[in-house]
Amino acid sequence: MSHEHRDNGPRRVGQVKEVTSLANPIIKDIKALSDKKTREQSGTFMAEGLKLVIDAIELGWTIRTLVYAKAAKGKPLVEQMAAKTVASGGLVLEVSEKVLSSITRRDNPQMVVGVFENRWKPLRDIRPAKGETWIALDRVRDPGNLGTIIRTADAAGASGVILVGETTDPFSLETVRATMGSVFAMPVSRATPEEFIAWKKQAGVSLVATHLAGSVDYRTIDYKTKPVVILMGNEQSGLPEQLSREADALARIPQQGLADSLNLAVASAVMMFEARRHLLSLSEAK
Ligand code: SAM
C-alpha cells in the first residue's frame, strides 16, 4: 500500500503551517474564541492539552485546527493527532511558545490546543429512559461550577446536562478546563425555563428540584421508578418559583454548621451520587 492511501500515513509537505507571529490572522481568529459571541457565531471552541484533544478526537468530535508547540514536534501522539486532523480536513499549526501562551492566556501553556466544532443536544431529542439521570441547571453563572458539574455528571454515570435560562458557556476555555475532558462525553442541552417546563410535562421523568427550603430529605426520594431529572438553583438566588413549582419533590440536603448552603457543584455531586446510588458499584467501576 502506498503512503498516500494509509489513513495515518505521513503528512505531505505544506499541510503543517509554521506560525511565529502573534499578528497572524489564523492566530487572531483562534484567540477570538475566548469571546463567547465569536464561539457562538463560529460554532467552535478551544480545548487545551493533549489528553483532551485525544479524548475529543476519539469520541468523534470534529477538529478544525490543531495547534502545537515546536517542542511537541515529533512526539508520536502529537503526530498521530496531527495526521487525524489533516485526514479529516483540518488545519495543523506549529507555533512558538509565545503564540501558544497568547492563545491560552497562560504563562506555561499546554503543548497542544485543539479547535473543535461545538455540539448542543436539542432538548426535544432527550427522551430519558428508566435508570437515566439528567441534571438541569438554572442560570448557572460560574464556569468552574459548570465544568465541575459536567465532570461529576460523567463520573456518576448521568446521561447529560440541561442548561436552563441564561447560563455561562459550557464551551468557554475555563469550563472546558474544569470538565477535564468530560465535556466531550456528556451531552449538553439548553432551554428557556418555558421550554424546559413544557419538555418536563411530556418527558415522563421525576423532577427532583433542590431547594434550601425543601421539605423532603434527599435520601428518602424514589430515584428508581422513573428516570430522574435533578434541578439545581442559581448560585446567588437559588431556584425561582416558576421552576420549583414544577417539581415532583423539593429536596433538601440536611446541613449542620455555619454555612447557609453548599456550593452548587458540591450539592450537585451529592444529589447525583444519591440518585444513582443503586446503579453504581465498585465491580463495574473503572
Ligand atoms: N442563596 C441561595 C439560595 O437561597 O438558594 C443559595 C444557592 S446555593 C449556593 C446553589 C444551589 O445549590 C441551590 O439553589 C440548591 O439547588 C443547591 N443547594 C445548596 N445547598 C443545598 C442544600 N443544603 N439542600 C438542597 N439544595 C442545596
Summarize the helices and strands and which ones pair or pack.
Layout: E1 16-19, H1 25-31, H2 36-42, E2 44-48, H3 50-58, E3 63-69, H4 76-87, E4 91-95, H5 97-104, E5 112-117, E6 133-138, H6 143-156, E7 160-164, H7 173-179, E8 188-191, H8 193-203, E9 206-210, E10 216-217, E11 228-232, H9 241-244, E12 249-252, H10 264-275
Parallel strand pairs: 1-4, 3-4, 6-7, 6-11, 7-8, 9-11, 9-12, 10-12
Antiparallel strand pairs: 2-5, 3-5
Helix pairs in contact: 1-5, 3-4, 6-7, 6-10
This protein binds S-adenosylmethionine.
Describe the protein in words.
The protein has 286 residues and is α/β, with parallel strands linked by helices. The protein has two domains: 15-117, 60s Ribosomal Protein L30, Chain: A (2-Layer Sandwich), CATH 3.30.1330; 123-254 and 263-276, 3-Layer(aba) Sandwich (Alpha/beta knot), CATH 3.40.1280.10. The protein is built from ten helices and twelve strands. A seven-stranded parallel β-sheet has the order 8-7-6-11-9-12-10. A five-stranded mixed β-sheet has the order 1-4-3-5-2. α6 (143-156) links the parallel β6 (133-138) and β7. The longest helix has 14 residues, at 143-156. It starts with 15 loop residues before the first strand and ends in an 11-residue tail after the last helix. Bound molecules: S-adenosylmethionine. Residues 210-212, 214, 232-233, 235, 238-239, 252-253, 255, 261-262, 264, 267 line the site of S-adenosylmethionine. The site of S-adenosylmethionine has 16 residues, from α10.
